[in-house]
Amino acid sequence: MPRRQQTRPRRGPPGSVRIIGGSWRGRRIEVLDGAELRPTPDRVRETLFNWLMPVLPGARCLDLYAGTGALGLEALSRGADECWFVERDARVASALEATLLRLIGQGATGAAPARGRVLATDAPRWLDRPPLNTFAVVFLDPPYAASNLGDLCKLVARGWLAPLAWVYLETSRTRELPVLPDGWQLHREAQAGDVRYALATVRSPKP
Q1: Contact predicate 39/67, CB 8 Å
Q2: SS3 assignment, position 150
Q3: What is the pLDDT of residues 105-138, one digit of tens each?
Q4: Is residue 186 a contact partner of residue 158, using CB atoms and an 8 Å limit?
Q5: CA 144/CA 170 separation, integer angstroms
Q6: 85: phi then psi, degrees, rounded to nearest 5
């Protein structure tokens, strides 16, 4: 998931990132200058979506700290039915909505198409409310310096997950992954460059 840059800066603005698989393979996503976004690297996304390949078709996804939306858009490209994107920067959220309209909103005007929903709001505040829906795949990639990955896991666990869900976690390579909530199990973990990332599987308790 794209995130605000908090560690080693890139050498110059990236300009755009590409969708690396699925029906939109090779399509470009704009990265706004001055927005301090750093999309999840291609190598990490390729590994992550190889892990997720069996569960994406028809899934409803949630891309928190969405930024460019690279993770959620990759999921839609690879067969996810729907993705909600949460991004607090209004300018970045507007650019993401324009990207959705360009990719899947042919003929749509005034709003993003049904498969993608952009919410211009703060992720922890949005999660700290009665759940609006449940999600089978959640991308959790907050700014590295925020050190709130564990708190976000606890918020997501409060009713936002489908009975069997998958949660992607990303942080700095210098940080440990948080203690997972009850019912969560680490499925895969890897490192690449400055990135430590993992995929957890969650079996939500029956109501």
Answers
A1: yes
A2: helix
A3: 643 344 456 789 999 999 999 999 999 999 999 9
A4: no
A5: 9
A6: -115, 125
CATH of 3-203, one of 3.40.190.10, 3.90.180.10, 3.40.50.1970, 3.40.50.150: 3.40.50.150
Cα distances (Å, whole numbers) of residue 102 to 29, 71, 88, 95, 127: 10, 17, 21, 11, 28
pLDDT in tens, 40-67: 888 999 999 999 999 999 999 999 999 9
Of the ranges 45-59, 82-96, 149-163, 191-205, which one carries the lowest mean pLDDT score? 191-205
- In sequence order, what are the residues at sequence separation of 6 or more whose Cβ sits closer than 8 angstroms to the Cβ of residue 107? none
pTM of the model: 0.87
Longest distance between any two alpha carbons in the chain, whole Å: 50
Dihedral Cα 158, 5, 137, 121, nearest 10 deg: 50
Q: 119, exposed or middle or buried, with CB in 10 Å at 0-12, 13-18, 19+? A: middle
Q: Residue 9, exposed/middle/buried by CB under 10 A (0-12, 13-18, 19+)?
A: exposed
Q: Are 155 and 121 in contact (CB under 8 A)?
A: no
What confidence tens digit (pLDDT) does each residue in 162-171 have?
999 999 999 9
Cα–Cα distance between 170 and 48 in angstroms, integer? 11
Q: What angle do CA 166, 87, 98 make, to 5 degrees?
A: 105
Rounded CA gap, 61 and 59, in Å?
6
